[in-house]
Amino acid sequence: MKGIKEHIKTGQYKTVYLLYGTESYLRRLYTSKLKTGALAGGDEMNLSVFSGKETDWNEVRNLAETMPFFAERRVLVLENTGAFKNACEFADEIAGLPDTAVLIFNESEVDKRSRMFKAVKEHGYICEMNGLSESDLSLWVAQLLNRDGKKISKDDLRFFLERVGSDMENIETEVEKLICYTGEREIITKEDILAVTTEQISGKIFAMTDALGVRNKKLALRLYHDLLAVREKPMTVLYLMVRQCNMILQAAEMSRQGLDRSAIAGKAGMPPFAVGKCLSQAKNFTVEQLLHLITYGTELEEQIKTGRIDERIAVELFLLTAVGAS
Known about the structure:
Blueprint: H1 2-10, E1 16-20, H2 24-39, E2 47-51, H3 57-65, E3 74-79, E4 101-107, H4 115-123, E5 125-128, H5 134-146, E6 151-152, H6 154-164, H7 168-182, E7 187-188, H8 190-196, H9 201-213, H10 217-229, H11 234-256, H12 261-268, H13 272-282, H14 287-305, H15 311-325
Parallel strand pairs: 1-4, 1-5, 2-3, 3-4, 6-7
Helix pairs in contact: 5-7, 9-10, 9-11, 10-15, 11-12, 11-13, 11-14, 11-15, 12-13, 14-15
């Protein structure tokens, strides 16, 4: 992202950009920044937007080769075209794009082995956006609050992020709720957070895993019953618990290989904030224990699907087994 900021600052743009990763908020934000910067405040008649897998690549080619109207550049924004997941003939055009064109791809999914990815890597600029680290996320939230004259303690800010998760679009919504709820009051408290924010299931799953790690069976079951009270399906809870164990295992293994949090986030496709939580939770489980829980959870999922066990009982069995494995 620093590279993109530098391109905008200097006005020196690549002919093609690829923004991808798990954090849609950042992809959308930097797509907008690039578009505005490359147009240099010019008329949007030099802007074309394409979306979806039905993108007409002949039209893209023709527009890219068309001289901009009373401006330096013609900007093309292409969103979720699937060009980096499936074969795309436009890969052959990347190297020959004119300097007057700036193509900005905003893609939720890419295959780094694809011809398009390799072509953009060679001739353009690629930025993977998997979210911010916990410290950067905290700083961003503090800045959002500060714009409206609000302040929050470090402990309450940490509680807020654990409660609402790391998705930046959701965080922005929850921050707005807090600002409106507190009115003229300057300090945001834990009570305010509990009063108006919506706890994400991911936060409960993290909390349940923490409870399992310290062998707190009572807390783990209470958190599970809290999820049932808000009509979360037991099968969903089981899936997310098994997924969490898998994420912990991946993060721990890559950390042992010497990868830092940013690299782990990129390879595992999870936000850096979640990587930190996973590495912390990994201290409470051995590799063998995690592998056992993943296998056992998968077996329980199969038993639920085939009607051999009630889904509520299956999750309770998983939690009890996890406490014993901790």
